[in-house]
Specification:
The chain is mostly helical and 242 residues long. 45% of the residues lie in helices and 6% in strands.
Length: 242
């Protein structure tokens, strides 16, 4: 393919060849994997990998040919308020559900995957679904139990508490409206987040509605990022946000 010498030396120029075809950071990982495989047959391969020529070559290509990191933009409070206003004066049940998830994700800093049902069947687990029985609603706050998440090593769950806000939009009022309609339709169903057709809220359904309102640089993670940014702007310490 490239007619380079078989022996892995610093002068082989394999890194130079590969950096012209794929991302240099990937080449760096490839070289480490290649060394693990070839060390049995070529004991000096690690010395070639760490040689100044290879190290400086990789450093230079990372500066010259690396692609910029593309991150989704954080959702702002103004965008959140405009989105809720665009839903209309008499929204349907599904629209209220969408607004509730949007507000809850923003104010609780939860990952979208902790609020919706995965599209990938292999990732679906009823153990991770939030139940209606865990909800506690008062005049000043609402609370529910997040049964499990990726940092919950002992599967104890976390109690998520959201207080009423004097500013608009208020997550408490949106959640209260959803809960009222949900209980009228599905009083005997145990799951908290249900669509009008009684199906569990799926990630694809939520994302299709999100993309219908916001530009492409807003994703499911933008709610969590926007909530954290809003707290930081309000003077909340980074330790508390984490």
């Amino acid at each position: 393919l490239h007619h380079f010498p078989i022996d892995p030396t610093a002068e082989t120029l394999y890194a130079t060849y590969m950096c012209h075809h794929i991302e240099p950071s990937s080449v760096d990982s490839y070289l480490s994997g290649i060394c693990s495989e070839l060390e049995v047959f070529y004991p000096a391969v690690r010395a070639a990998r760490t040689s100044p020529l290879v190290s400086r070559t990789m450093k230079g290509f990372k500066r010259l040919r690396s692609k910029p990191i593309v991150r989704k933009r954080a959702l702002s409070k103004d965008e959140l308020q405009r989105a809720l206003a665009s839903l209309g004066a008499s929204p349907s049940y599904d629209v209220i559900l969408f607004a509730t998830i949007l507000m809850t994700g923003f104010h609780t800093l939860l990952h979208l995957g902790e609020l919706v049902w995965p599209d990938n069947i292999a990732l679906q687990s009823y153990r991770k679904l939030t139940m209606r029985a865990s909800v506690k609603l008062t005049n000043g706050a609402f609370e529910f139990l997040l049964p499990a998440h990726k940092t919950d090593a002992f599967f104890e769950g976390n109690h998520v508490l959201v207080q009423r806000s004097a500013n608009t939009p208020d997550p408490h009022s949106v959640f209260s409206e959803y809960l009222k309609k949900r209980d009228n339709l599905f009083r005997l169903r145990p799951k908290l987040w249900l669509r009008a057709n009684s199906a569990i809220l799926a990630r694809s359904w939520f994302m299709s509605r999100l993309r219908g309102i916001f530009p492409r640089d807003i994703s499911g993670h933008s709610m969590r990022a926007g909530g954290a940014t809003s707290l930081a702007a309000a003077g909340v310490s980074p330790a508390s946000i984490q």
